[in-house]
Each structure stands twice: as C-alpha cells, then as structure tokens.
Design a protein that fits this description.
Keywords: Coiled coil. InterPro entries: Metal_resp_DNA-bind_regulator, Tscrpt_reg_PadR_N, WH-like_DNA-bd_sf, WH_DNA-bd_sf. This is Helix-turn-helix transcriptional regulator. There is one protein chain. By secondary structure, this protein is mainly alpha-helical. The protein has two domains: about 5-95, Arc Repressor Mutant, subunit A; about 105-215, no CATH class. It is built from eight helices and five strands, in the order αβααβαβααααββ. It has a three-stranded antiparallel β-sheet with strand order 1-3-2. β4 and β5 (about 210-215) form a beta hairpin. α1 (about 5-20) runs parallel beside α6 (about 105-115). The longest helix has 29 residues, at about 120-150. The chain starts with a helix and ends in a 14-residue tail after the last strand.
Length: about 230
C-alpha cells in the first residue's frame, strides 16, 4: 500500500466512523473539511472505497431512504450508494488511530492524524505530538548546519528562501510546544468538538496541510520544508 493511499484509507474510515456518507459527501469532506488532500478526484476515492468494502471494513447500501432506492431507477439514474463503517472497520480504524510510529508524524500523515485527534486518546496524542516535534527539531538542526556551510555561496533570494523555511519549522515547533503543554495540563483545545474535525481550519505548506484551531494563534505555514 502506498503512503498516500494509506492516508486516504485512514481518513475515509475516520469520516465514516462519524456517520455513513455518499461518495460525493465523502469527497467534499476530504477536500474541504479536513484539508488533507488537494485536487482530490473520484478516480482516486472510488477504488479506495472498493478496497475497503472488499476488506470487510465498509458496506455499500442503497440511498438513505426507500424512496431514493425506487426513484432513481425510474428516473434512469443509478441509486446513490451509502458507505457505512462495519464493526471490523471500526476496529481497524481504532488500531490505526493507536499507532504512534514514525509514519504518524511524517508531513502528510501527521496532518491526517491531527484531523482526528478528537477521536484519539490523550496518551497517543502526546506520543504523536512529541514524535512530530522531535522530527522537526532534527530537521531544523540540519537546516541550520546546511545554511552555515553554504551561506557565503548563496545569493540573497536563495538565502531568504532558506531563512523562510527555517522560520516555518521554528513556528511549527513553537505551536507543537503549546499543544504538548496543553495536553500535559489535561486541557482540550478551545472549541473542539467531540469528533475533532468539524472545528478545525487548515493551512497548506509545501507537502501537506496542517490543521489548526480557529481560535488560536498558530503558524501560518507548517514546517514541511524539505531537508
């Protein structure tokens, strides 16, 4: 399974854990609510859904009402399919949600994981946040060392771009420090819903959107500059 398809499956399962949805609604939520993916097509979504159904993690059902199921064929249209999470699918998603390995805090995967923090236990959130911070601190150290070695050979614009990348990473590290402090103090984010996704805005960086809360002052650009 590719990394991007793995992130997509995770996000689909997470959204369907909240409620059953049509494919159109799923695509809309993935593209606008979570902000995890860009230019997200049905050609990518439906093969993913078919795989999840084949694995027994989702079921396909006719439209939400019997009227939908009858009216569509009479009008020459296909009945809408509603995708619903199975018990096995819920168990699989909870297993994915509990994982705290390196993939959980890579640039794109971290954005998806953060979008579902409202469904994640506090100790798992802490491990993911601390892993992300450690990853970015290592990246920042390498960026500083590289800049020190090459500063004299860079023109002003390239140098400014390097500084911008470092500042982006530094802002995200400060943001992570605030989140970790809140988690340690047992505080939830202001305005967070139980599901965790409805109350979040996102910002987009070079390699992936990073969710942020509306009521907090967070970095404008996540630290996903390449090392």
């Amino acid at each position: 399974m590719g990394r991007r398809s793995g992130i997509l499956e995770f996000a689909v399962l997470g959204l369907l854990r909240e409620s059953p949805m049509h494919g159109y609604e799923l695509r809309k939520r993935l593209n606008t609510s979570l902000g995890v993916f860009r230019a997200f097509s049905y050609g990518t979504l439906y093969p993913c859904l078919k795989t999840l159904v084949a694995n027994g993690w989702l079921t396909e059902e006719p439209g939400s009402t019997s009227e939908d199921a009858v009216a569509a064929p009479l009008a020459g249209r296909r009945a809408k399919i509603v995708y619903r999470l199975t018990a096995e699918g819920k168990e699989h998603f909870e297993e994915l949600l509990s994982q705290t390995g390196p993939d959980a805090y890579d640039d794109e995967h971290f954005a998806a994981r953060f979008a579902f923090f409202g469904q994640t236990s506090r100790d798992v959130r802490m491990r993911v946040l601390e892993g992300r911070r450690s990853r970015l601190e290592e990246r920042l150290e390498k960026m500083r060392a590289s800049l020190a070695r090459t500063r004299e050979r860079l023109d002003d614009y390239t140098l400014e771009l390097q500084r911008h990348g470092m500042e982006s990473v530094e802002r995200e590290v400060r943001w992570l420090n605030e989140l970790i402090e809140s988690e340690r103090a047992g505080r939830d984010l202001k305005g967070s819903a139980t599901g965790g996704t409805a109350q979040q805005d996102t910002t987009s960086g070079a390699t992936g959107g990073l969710p942020r809360t509306r009521e907090s002052s967070r970095p404008d650009t996540p630290g996903d500059t390449a090392t």
